[in-house]
Amino acid sequence: MAKPALYEQTIALNPSEHAQLRVAVSAAPYAFAADMNVMPVSYSEFNDACHHYPIVFMEGQPGHFHPVVLLGLEPQRNLYVAPSGNWSLDEYIPAFARRYPFMLGTAADQQTLALHVDANYAGLSESEGNALYDNGEESEYFQNMMAFVRTYQEEIAASEQFGTRLHELGLLQPQSVTITRDGKDQNLAGFSVVDREAYQQLADEQVLELFKNGALALIERHLSSLGNVHRLGRQADRLRAAN
């Protein structure tokens, strides 16, 4: 299982080596995401995310598409993470960010699923924070985080299947957006969106398929979210004015 780039080094947690390990909330909990102008989202997040960010699709492996939210107008600039490392108040925080410093991986046997933690996370210690183990047994905190990352991983996989199916149906088209600020054009590209004309021309059996598996509702939320591109420009203006 490949490690996301943001995790510099992860360790598979086990009671024999990490019985005393604790995890404290960082004073700058989302500083790690400050340079991420896109972030993956799962289908279960569409209902919340569509009110805050543009939801688009990016190609990973050839022919495989996954949904992401746009968080900035330029590479390595997340407009929603403040210099303090906090996420902007009242904005939805994607599960990708909320799960940090944890992720799902495999144990030493390379077969059993295990909870992994970023070994370089500043909140790791044996004196402060949430205990991972209690007398050699997984703590409630550990169990909650394991359940969270397991569900997240399952939903991300299903979300890629959803995006890939849209591609197979010929619904995804490359898109770019140009936003003019201070007389300068900023171009967002490298993503795809559902083509409305192709969407309207789906065969009846295809519409029925998408209705039964819940994809129609997701498509509508995706399309409605595209108007949030202008919120990115306004957010950038607010940050500039504050500085």
TrEMBL record:
InterPro entries found in the cross-reference section: SapC
Highest rank taxon of the organism: Bacteria
Protein name, UniProt field: SapC family protein
Organism: Candidatus Paenalcaligenes intestinipullorum
Origin organism lineage: Bacteria, Pseudomonadati, Pseudomonadota, Betaproteobacteria, Burkholderiales
